[in-house]
Amino acid sequence: MKVFLAIAALLLLLPLVGAEVFTVSPGESIQEAIELAQPGDTVELKDGEYTEDLVTVRDGEPDKRITLSGGRGAVLKGTGKESRLFQIHHSYTTVDGFVLDGKIGKGDKAEHYVDKGIYAHGNRETRVIRQYGEEFRSAIDGLIISNMKIINFGGECTRFRYFVTNLEFFGSHLENCGVYDFVFNGMKSVNGETIYLGTSSNQISDGKNPSDEIDQTRFIHIHHNVFKGLSNEVDAKEGAQYILVEENQCSTQKDPNSGCVDSRSDYVVFRYNQIHSNDGAGVRIGGHEVNGKQWGLNNEVYGNTFYGNKEGALKLQTGQKEHPHLCENTCKGGCEVSGSASEGNEDMEKKCSDLMPIFWVDDTKAAPDAVSVGAEASSIGGEPDDAADADTREHEPEADFDAAVEGRAEPKQSGKCFPVPIADVKASSEDGKHTVHAAIDGKALTRWSSLGKGEWLEIDLASPQKIDAIEMSFFKGDERTQSFEVAVDGKNILQNQESNGKTLALERFPFPKAVDASSSVTIEGGGNSQNDWNSMTEVIVCGAEEQQQKSQESEDGLCSTIEKLDIGKVSASVDDGKDRAATSVIDGDLKTRWETEGPEEQHISVDLGKPMTVTELGLAVFEGDKIKQFFDVLVETEEHGWEEVVIDGESLKSNGIESYDIGMKGVTTVKVVCYGSEDLASGEGIERNSFTEIELYGCV
Which residues contact 369 (CB under 8 A, 6 or more apart)? Predict the structure, then answer.
């Protein structure tokens, strides 16, 4: 299970003592409320549609943020008079929970779309901030964009330009960005990033920034988002550094010459993302040379899952000849690496070593020690700080800062979830497809679901533990709230709890006090705000103290020796027993096949005869170079029954055997559920499911 720092989004929105809450309803002016809001205040949007173009007017403070928040029912559309729907020019601003929709007409013309959604531009002189034990320059510091839905923009959905620092962007859904070029302009150009970071090297002298210099936007954390854009979905330009992009889902990118996520800069980390179904590569790395400096170096790509990317997992245009930090990725169908710098970097699945410390994420965002030591301007048009030291203002910390962070250990943070080992999990019931074990499998795409108030799941801990919180993420967590209660060893700890309804990311639910020697945690569902279903995608039990973890090396491979497994028998929903028989998939002959035609959702199952450890599934599609097959993969284990391991799978353009990770013990049966196919040339759907071979690998 990937361990990450979960943000307690609700805590960000709790009003401070003495702070004002300005409530705005449809028909009233959000901009007027923004102009009234002082540091610590919140502007709260009631459900409904708003037609305005917004701009911030003042900074918050590190411990007194200015917040604009609303639910999914609050939808902000532009007037069409401005090219930017929401302009942010000030520090310590939080934007949370509502919808930005750039479509202002029917949608069949380019002029029906606003150009940009959020445009954060530091259009003022920088100040010097002391944080992380160093000094750096900033024009906008400490932005938080959380739990938003941002859709339908002609150009970039969001852009962060000119010395934007300490940005956190999480729990959001971004879709249909780049409509101008990708829908109406025939991709003659390919502008329209989902998240654009920094200033392109060919734009630093366009007169739009306060100075013509490399834009040192930095210390960025982008996590737990769903990206379904058209152009690059995270794009770091030359000079934007110390960026962590993790635990996101990234798909539907349409530019074959680029990647779903892209770094044209240095010190950008892409880790633990699901990157799939893109026309370009999964990740692209490569920058320009600017003033004698080559950009696109010292980036890291590890722990990601790649599949269905037409130009491979990675396109590497710049970088070291042998890059140790392209490692421990999982590729379904192969880890193809292309590009002018690919030689020597073909192995993306090797073990990682000497990874960069992510120091800017472990420190608290917008921490009190982020203190200006030479503010050149506190607001647009503001006066310089007369007391500032001119020498400090002119300090350029780039080189000595890079040297200072090299080799620094990652600090620990209080309040972090320390996941405790889990022995087992059980439930009052399951819906059959979404089993209880899915709630602890570390996969955001799977879930446990059970219908009815009072349904429960119980987690048995591997040993008695001192615990102080649980973290949970919820199916459709950005559309509805989930009600529940929590008991530890049969005693109620949390009552009348409710998720925030704004995020797909993990939410933290702290206990009133730590509970010693705990053996089990029970979560009782109370239905959700739409119906009586209880559905969790992930549950983590948090220890009060960091565990002494055992080495995970033995778990990286479930088998000391992996071999092809003997399959006992094959069965299918349709089997003619002749030239299209189910047994054709295990005869070792790619010229024979199992095939069904007609209604969708057919299946074929292979039975191992006894429990085995299965590490990998191999599938070969008939005419796979012409046809894309759609499918899910389920496995049955003795301990947990049926579980999904591949969801919304798509075959690659290949007649060979494609590999899909399973990584489970005690497997008795593997089932491939088919949903028809698609002609790669025409894009037309075909009511046909056909495989030539199915193979399983692992150990007894």
Answer: 130, 131
What distance in Å separates the CA atoms of residue 66 and residue 63, rounded to the nearest whole number?
Answer: 10
Give residue-wise pLDDT tens across range 123-149: 999 999 999 888 999 999 999 999 999
Superfamily of the domain at 418-543: Galactose-binding domain-like (2.60.120.260)
**273 is written with which tokens?**
């993302």
Quick: pLDDT tens for 591-605.
889 999 865 678 899
Burial 241-261 (b: 16+ CB within 10 A, else e): bbbbbbbbbbbbbbbeebbbb
Cα separation, 138 vs 142, whole angstroms: 10
Fold of 21-203+222-338: Pectate Lyase C-like (2.160.20)
What is the pTM for the complete model shown?
Answer: 0.60
Number of other residues whose CB lies within 10 A of the CB of residue 425: 21
State in words which class domain 562-699 has: mainly beta
Angle at 30 between CA 28 and CA 31, to 5 degrees: 120
Distances (CA, A) of 325 to 67, 240, 307: 38, 19, 20
Residue with tokens 């809450």: 21
pLDDT at 619 > cutoff 60: yes
Query: Where are the domains positioned within the chain?
Result: 21-203+222-338, 418-543, 562-699
From residue 506, how far is each of 244, 411, 477, 499, 540 by CA, in Å?
Answer: 18, 22, 9, 10, 9
In whole angstroms, give the CA distance from residue 614 to residue 619: 14
> What is residue 321's three-state secondary structure?
coil
- The pLDDT tens digits for 421-448 are 888 899 998 876 678 888 887 666 678 8
